[in-house]
Amino acid sequence: MFSKIPFALKRILDNNSVGAISTISVYNIPIIDFVPFIPLSESSLLFIIKNTSKIIKNLSNNSYYTFTIDEIHLEDPTKNSGLMFEGRLTALPFNQDLIDKININEKLKEMVQLFEGKVTKIVMWRGPYFKTIRTKK
Questions:
Q1: pLDDT above 60: residue 137
Q2: How far apart are the first and last CA of the chain?
């Protein structure tokens, strides 16, 4: 799925390591947190989320998420661009492959949890132009 992202926008995914993840509470209130991420596969992202984040507390109510990374140009908004991913979050256990991939130490392991975000939809924009990619069912 990520291979379908145009090169000009793919660099946003490749050059960033933090983005905004959000879910909706049972009271329809948005819960937003900034988290580090890495692409895990062609259609999933790995998120490192603090144990104290409301995102984790909300997962038992709603595993749906959106994740946004973008580039803002204050001087010329027509140059704004970004990617928004949608899908479901699943908790991942720490295993040696993941520990090596994200280079995490024992102290940090106690403070965070790992989540895989399966991507079902990507919304891309560059200036006023938007495009959507969905997974095939």
A1: no
A2: 13
DSSP structure string for 44-55: EEEEEEETT-HH
Contact yes or no for 38/54 (Cβ under 8 A): no
Q: Domain coordinates of the chain in residue numbers?
A: 2-134
Taking alpha carbons only, the member of 14, 55, 63 closest to residue 34 is 55
DSSP H or E run through 89? strand 81-92
Alpha-carbon distance of 10 to 3, in angstroms, equals: 8
Distance CA 36, CA 50 (A): 10
Rounded to 5°, the CA angle 85-27-43 comes to 15
pLDDT tens for 93-108 read 887 777 777 777 777 8
Quick one: which of 52, 60, 134 has its CA closest to 91?
Answer: 60
Q: Which fold has domain 2-134?
A: Pnp Oxidase; Chain A (2.30.110)
38-57 pLDDT, tens digit each: 999 999 999 999 999 999 98
